[in-house]
Amino acid sequence: MSYQNLTVIFAVVFLYSVMSRRLEQKPINGALLFCIIGFLLGNDGLEWFQVKLTNESIKTLAELALAIVLFTDAAKANLKVLATNIDLPRRLLLVGLPLTIIFGIGAGMALLPQLPVIEIAILAALLAPTDAALGKAVVTDPSVPAKIRGTLNAESGLNDGICVPIVFSLLPIAADPSLISNLNQMAAQLLAEQIGLGVLVGIGIAILAGQIIDYSFQTKEQSKTWEQVTVVALAICCFSIAQLAGGSGFIAAFVGGIVFGWLEKPYKEQLLDSAEGIGDSLSLMTWLIFGAAIIGSVLHEFTWEILAYSILSLTVVRILPVYFVLRGEPLSTKEKLFIGWFGPRGLASIVFAIIVLDANLPGSSIIASTAVTTIGLSVILHGLTAHSFIKALKKK
Q1: What is the CA radius of gyration of the chain?
Q2: What is the percent of the chain where pLDDT is above 90?
Q3: Percentage of residues in the chain having pLDDT higher than 70
Q4: For residue 212, how many other CB atoms are within 10 A of its CB?
Q5: How many helices (H) and strands (E) does the chain have?
Q6: Are 48 and 8 in contact (CB under 8 A)?
Q7: Predicted local confidence at residue 365, as pLDDT
Q8: Which parts of the chain are beta strand (E)?
Q9: Distance between the two ends of the chain, CA-based, in angstroms?
C-alpha cells in the first residue's frame, strides 16, 4: 500500500477519533461516513485514495475486524438477561434465519431470473447474517430494553457462523450441479464442524487465556502499555485457531467472548475498553476501503431489479420472518418491528461476497453487485434511523 493511501486512512481515522463523541451522536454513523469519504476520495472519485488491494486482503481485514467486535460485544453482554430471554435469539436463529433465506430465494427468483436457483440461494444466504459492528449504536444504547439488546447481539454473533456452512455447501454445487445429491450430507457435516469446533475452540481458548491473565495480574507481570492488545490478540487467536481446525472463527470469537465475560474477572472492563477501540478502528478502515474500492467497481451491474431485491432484503425478507417467530412473546408490535428492522448487513456479508467473487461463478458479478447494493443501503438506512427509532421505541 502506498504512503499516500496510508496517509488518507490514518488521517481520516485520526480526525474521526478526536471528534468521535460528537459524531456518534449524529444520525450519520461511522460506517456511513467512512463509506462516503472512501467513495469521494477513492477509485471512482478524486483518486486520492486508490485502492488496488487483493480480494484476500480486504476479506482478511473485514474478518479480523468482525472477530474483535464479536468478542468484545459478547464479553460485555449481560448474561443474566440473555439467559432469561434465551428463547428470543433461539427462535431468530433456528426458525427466523432459515425463513429469511427462503424468503430471499423467493425474492431472487422473482427479480433475478437470470441467476440459477442455486446462485440465488447463495445470495440469500450471504445476505442473511446481521452485523454486530453496524448495529453497535442499538446494542450498546442503555435506553433500548436489555432483552432486545441481548437478543440482537446474540443473533448477530451467531448467525454468520451458521451461514458459513450453508454458503460453503452451495458453492461447489453451483460450480458442479451433479453434487446436489450430496447437499444434505455436505451441509450437515459442515454445520457440525463449523459450529461444534467453533464452540469448543472458543471455550477452550477463553478458559486457558483467563488462567494466564489471572497469573499475570496476580504477579503484576503485565505492563499498562500492553493491556491494550491483550483482548485483541485473544479474539484473533480464537478466530484463527478455529479456522485452522475447520470450524467457524466467528462463532469461536463470539463464544470465546461470552466465556471471557462470564468469568467476571476484576480486570475485564479495563482490557475490553482498549480492544473495543481497536475493533472499531479496523471496522471503519474496512468501510473506508469498501467505499473506495468496491462500491464503484460493481456499479456497472446495477439495475432496478437489483435495487428492488436489496430493498426487499432489508425489509420484507427480514422483518416478516422475525415478526412471525416472535408471535406469542411478551413484546409489543413496536418492539417486534424494531428487532426486525435492525438486522443490518455488513462485514460478514462483505466476507461472503468476496468468497463468491473468488469462486468465479457465472453469476458472481450480479451476486456481488446485489450484495454491495444491499450492504450500502443498509449502511445508509440503518445508520440514519438508529437514533430516531430508539427514541420512538421509548415512547409508549
Answers
A1: 20
A2: 31
A3: 94
A4: 12
A5: 20, 0
A6: yes
A7: 86
A8: none
A9: 52
User: Is residue 201 pLDDT above 90, yes or no?
Assistant: yes
Please give the grid coordinates belonging to residue 115: 441467476
Say which residues have a Cβ less than 8 Å from residue 90's Cβ, sequence separation at least 6: none
Spatial separation of the C-alpha atoms in residues 345 and 342, rounded to whole Å: 9
What values do phi and psi take at 115, rounded to 5?
Answer: -90, 140
**Which of 156, 121, 164 is closest to 137 using CA atoms?**
156
Determine contact, residues 371/126, Cβ cutoff 8 Å: yes
What are 129's three cell numbers?
447474517
> DSSP readout, 10-54?
HHHHHHHHHTHHHHTTSSS-HHHHHHHHHHHHSTTTT-SS-----
User: pLDDT tens for residues 305-360?
Assistant: 999 999 999 999 999 999 999 988 889 999 999 999 998 988 888 888 888 887 88
> For the residues 291-297, what does the mean pLDDT come to?
79
Encode 22-55: b = buried (16+ Cβ within 10 Å), e = exposed.
eeeeeeebbbbbbbbbbbebbbebeeebbbebee
- Say how far apart CA 42 and CA 35 lie, in whole Å: 10
The C-alpha cell of 123 is what?
445470495
Q: Closest Cα partner for 311 from 364, 385, 386, 373?
A: 373
What DSSP state is assigned to residue 296?
G
**Cell reading at 48:** 486520492
